[in-house]
């Protein structure tokens, strides 16, 4: 049985969550931009690219984002906490689902109750599933009515917490992620969530991103489209030259695929980890530079790199501006303590019996 010491788990969990938040915050103000738009704007601002710190400015600073924020809220020097985002909110929500359900054995009904209780704003598959739930559709059918987005990226941006709660337990992480994903997604949308949850769980034990990404394939159907795409990305892991080459490879492989689909963004996440190596800041910067759903890929890649390599590989300038505070646009608290959330994740993870207390 694979185990991890409590000291190592705490270090890797902190790195995973902070790197997730850093990747999201770096990508948030340019979400939806093209690769060329980001390159041009960085050049206009006189910045090295890929970036080595947060964006110092945005062209639309006063536009609102996630109820409480403006686009300028994600810029260097403008935040003293983790700014609101769905990639942040769903990481909190996965913890709440476990805490308010039956721990790590929560059910689809527990997911539905938490969604109705907490979610204020949602988009695409999540928006449709939430509306269906509120209209009385049973949780097991909420993803199946008027939902053309059921293979988009939404479920896999919700899965990181399940990896955090199941260090060295990839099967358990994938099981929790599947239960969560089923409320809104199907097929590859579900497999993406299962895959990345398993990869994060494996990262705690393997301490090597490529090994974790490879081993994670054991926890999704081998004949699904996502598995085929990940195998292709791993075959090119050591050949990808830079962020532009990565984006070109993915667009050639998946022509016409929507920019927020699960499959193409999963491959970009793999390539960001390949390019960044053990430098977590380089991982998230390359993920953002590849465009597509860049705040999501940077958040997921940051999570994996953090769980693999720990705090020593995450430069402090990426997380010091957060202080000890996470912003939320969900119902409930406006802010949460980072340290408290880490402690609560640890409490769930200890139930798995894989953490050795020295």
Plain-language structure description:
This protein is mostly helical and 358 residues long. Helix content is 53%, strand content 4%. It is built from 15 helices and 6 strands. The protein has helices at 6-27, 35-45, 86-100, 108-118, 124-134, 160-164, 170-181, 188-206, 209-215, 225-235, 243-253, 262-276, 280-289, 294-309, 338-350, and strands spanning 4-5, 64-65, 69-70, 325-327, 335-337, 355-356. A two-stranded parallel ribbon has the order 1-6. Strands 2-3 form a two-stranded antiparallel sheet. Strands 4-5 form a two-stranded antiparallel ribbon. Strand 2 and strand 3 form a beta hairpin. Helix 3 (86-100) packs across helix 4. The two termini are 17 Å apart.
The count of helical stretches stands at 15
Biggest sheet descriptor: 2 strands, parallel
Helical coverage, percent range: 40-55%
Basic shape = globular
Please state the average pLDDT score: 98
The poorly predicted ranges are none
Notable traits:
two-stranded parallel sheet, single chain, two-stranded antiparallel sheet, 358 residues, globular
Concise description?
The chain is mainly alpha-helical. The chain has helices spanning 6-27, 35-45, 86-100, 108-118, 124-134, 160-164, 170-181, 188-206, 209-215, 225-235, 243-253, 262-276, 280-289, 294-309, 338-350; strands at 4-5, 64-65, 69-70, 325-327, 335-337, 355-356.
């Amino acid at each position: 049985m694979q185990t991890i010491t409590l000291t190592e788990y705490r270090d890797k969990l902190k790195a995973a969550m902070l790197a997730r938040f850093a990747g999201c915050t770096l990508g948030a103000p340019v979400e939806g931009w093209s690769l060329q738009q980001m390159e041009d704007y960085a050049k206009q601002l006189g910045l090295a690219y890929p970036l080595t710190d947060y964006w110092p400015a945005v062209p639309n600073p006063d536009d609102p984002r996630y109820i409480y924020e403006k686009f300028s809220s994600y810029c260097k020097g403008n935040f003293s906490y983790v700014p609101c985002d769905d990639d942040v909110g769903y990481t909190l929500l996965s913890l709440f689902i476990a805490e308010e359900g039956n721990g790590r054995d929560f059910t689809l009904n527990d997911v539905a109750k938490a969604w109705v209780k907490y979610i204020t704003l949602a988009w695409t598959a999540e928006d449709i599933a939430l509306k269906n739930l509120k209209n009385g559709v049973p949780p097991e059918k909420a993803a199946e009515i008027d939902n053309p987005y059921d293979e988009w990226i939404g479920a896999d941006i919700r899965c990181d917490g399940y990896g955090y709660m199941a260090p060295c337990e990839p099967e358990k992480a994938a099981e929790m992620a599947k239960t969560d994903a089923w409320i809104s997604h199907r097929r590859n949308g579900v497999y993406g969530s299962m895959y990345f949850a398993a990869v994060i769980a494996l990262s705690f034990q393997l301490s090597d991103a490529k090994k974790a990404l490879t081993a994670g394939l054991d926890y999704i159907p081998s004949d699904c489209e996502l598995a085929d795409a990940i195998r292709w990305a791993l075959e090119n892991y050591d050949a990808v030259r830079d962020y532009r080459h990565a984006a070109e490879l993915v667009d050639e492989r998946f022509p016409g695929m929507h920019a927020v689909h699960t499959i193409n963004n999963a491959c970009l996440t793999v390539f960001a980890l390949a390019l960044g190596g053990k430098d977590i800041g380089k991982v998230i910067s390359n993920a953002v530079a590849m465009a597509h759903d860049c705040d999501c890929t940077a958040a997921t890649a940051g999570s994996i790199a953090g769980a693999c390599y720990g705090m020593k590989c995450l430069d402090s300038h990426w997380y010091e501006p957060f202080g000890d505070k996470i912003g939320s646009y969900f119902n409930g608290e406006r802010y949460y303590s980072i340290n408290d959330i880490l402690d609560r994740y640890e409490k769930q993870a200890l139930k798995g019996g894989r953490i050795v207390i020295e």
